[in-house]
Input
Amino acid sequence: MNCETIKQNVGIRTVLESFNIFPVKENRKTAFYFALDREEKIPSLSVDFVKNKAFDFGTGKSYDVISIVQQMNQCSVSDALKYLSAFVFSSQNEFLDTEVKAQFDYKVLEIKEIEHPALLQYLKSRKVFEQKHLVSEIHYELNEKKYFGINFQNDSGGFEIRNPYSKICLGKKDITFIQSEQNANNEIVIFEGFFDYLTFRNLEKSDNPTFDFLILNSTAMLFKAEERLKKYETISLFLDNDANGKSVKARIQNQYKNVEDCSLIYHDFKDLNEWFCEKEANTLSP
Output
């Protein structure tokens, strides 16, 4: 794996999101972020999603995905490449599975029902233990080290993996579309991540949902679903209450009719799962 391969195939938006850095202002091709190396009130970091590069107008410094990781982690190029090896996707580029496996050193060792005590406890802490049948336990090898986590499959066969300490994707990054046979109302419900989807299913308490689901797995993946969303009479949004989530919400509201913003339910919280965890904790308190 070399620097040029990483620069061409790892999306800059995804790398910034991995550090919880989201745009203050954005359009389809560019965005402004706050600087990476200092606090400021007016965003000065200009990001070009097409060129996959960033420029800081305050310092005159240019960034690519490697130098962003170096800046945030204060690490060498070699360590930055190891960090980026988990991000084997881009919102602008598509790979074949064979190309991904050839370029990035990872191997899926086992996928099974969730049994590991640490993962079961993690699901309990996120208040979605009852939905463990909707996810799986994955064991994998990355850069010659073995890991495990909770796996949620996306539509390109990629593995969206979470555990208490990490959040990565192996294989192609993509959305996850779940179609219901009971969808008489022609409605779709949209989430950013699968923990919010699991939370919704917990709240719904039904094994036969009456609408379709779309889990973006990254807001950068919205373009994958834009054509499909045109057919729905109702679009319900359960997006995060941060700058990135609000930006995607505005984009969807501008493009489609009959869009319902359900984030008002959890307006004081980051996302649906955080709100639900607090709600459950308060319910159990004496």
Summary: The two ends are 55 Å apart (CA to CA). Confidence is low (pLDDT under 50) at residues 88-103.
